Amino acid sequence: MKNYLIKLLISTVLIVVISHFLKIEITNYTAAILMAFALSVLNTFLKPILVFFTIPVTIMSLGLFLLIINAVIVKIADYFIDGISVPTFLTAIIFSIVLSVSQYILNKIFIDKK
């Protein structure tokens, strides 16, 4: 539970920081927290289903279609969270790439391996 809360905090901070560099509007910090939670829930439950149904396309694109799936997850979370606005699909792709790489690096630094 402690590691999940740290990951949620890392994701929230990264969402706020990345939104300053991209044209993503965040009205308040509560929206960023909800976005981080929504992304974690969607990545846990919806992403495996999407990956399963798009296995042929993913194999043909050598895995690059997973970037599209990540962007779809971001746009779905944007749809459900009122305080976040991701304007274009390209912005969602860039946001998902930067968020994933940043989360990987910061989770390696801050999360216990016990």
Q: Please, what is the oligomeric state?
A: single chain
Biggest sheet strand order reads: 1-2
Low-confidence stretches: none
Series of H and E elements: HEHHHEH
- Please tell me the total number of domains: 1
Describe the protein.
This protein has one domain (2-110). The model has no long low-confidence stretch (mean pLDDT 94). The chain is 78% helix and 4% strand. The protein has helices at residues 2-21, 29-53, 55-60, 65-80, 89-110, and strands at residues 25-26, 84-85. Helix 1 (2-21) packs across helix 5 (89-110). With 114 residues, the chain is mainly alpha-helical. It has a two-stranded antiparallel sheet.
Q: Which terms summarize this structure?
A:
114 residues, two-stranded antiparallel sheet, 2 strands, Phage_holin_4_2, transmembrane helix, Phage holin family protein, membrane, transmembrane
Topology:
Elements: H1 2-21, E1 25-26, H2 29-53, H3 55-60, H4 65-80, E2 84-85, H5 89-110
Antiparallel strand pairs: 1-2
Provide a compact summary of the structure.
This protein is mainly alpha-helical and 114 residues long. The protein has helices at residues 2-21, 29-53, 55-60, 65-80, 89-110, and strands spanning 25-26, 84-85. 78% of the residues lie in helices and 4% in strands.
